[in-house]
Amino acid sequence: SGFKVPVNTSSRNNNSRGESQALNTTLLWRKKFAKKGRTVSLNFDERYSNNEANGFLSSFNQVFGNGNIKDTIDQQKINNSNRLSFSGKVSYTEPLSKSVTLEVNYGLSNSNSESERITNDGINGKYETYIDSLSSHYGVNILTNSGGANIRVNRKSINFSMGGTISHAAF
Q: At CA 68, angle to CA 63 and CA 71, rounded to 5?
């Protein structure tokens, strides 16, 4: 009982090469009015990312025993994803007294993303057979509207703010 007979053996090789790009932009504009504490500001953000990867999976599996089963996998893996989002916000502040300020704001954002994962089976060095069960392709588009209000109190002995935002997202 000292010698153990192997049940199976497996060899696997997985390699991949990829490229990524990203760009983020922010723009802020603020206008102060003659009345101390009264302002309006516009904020704009843009985010972009793109990722591409191409790789290969090869494996050899063997199960010993009844039938001595052998299985070989030779696949190409292609992964692509991209995302583009824009958001803007306008805010207005109005002093209600020397120590109390009201801020109201509205925001709008749009986010688009797409992801694709392709798996092709290799036959004689050619990767032309698409494997549906191991592949996917989907996109998501989200449009969000939001509005909010905040009260800020700034006194010698106490500083605080409270408020909230409500938003609606459409997919």
A: 60
Q: Residue 38: which of 123, 97, 111, 81 has the closest Cα?
A: 97
Q: How far apart are CA 122 and CA 113, in angstroms?
A: 29
Interatomic CA distance for residues 136 and 45, integer angstroms: 30
pLDDT tens by residue, the chain, 171 residues: 677 888 899 999 999 999 999 999 999 999 999 999 999 999 999 999 999 999 999 999 999 887 889 999 999 999 999 999 999 999 999 999 999 999 999 999 999 999 999 999 999 989 999 999 999 999 999 999 999 999 999 999 999 999 999 999 999
pTM for the whole structure: 0.78
Q: Report the distance separating Cα 122 and Cα 48, nearest Å.
A: 33
Distance (Å, whole) CA 121 – CA 35: 70
CB 77 within 8 A of CB 55: yes
Two structure tokens written together for 138: 């989907």
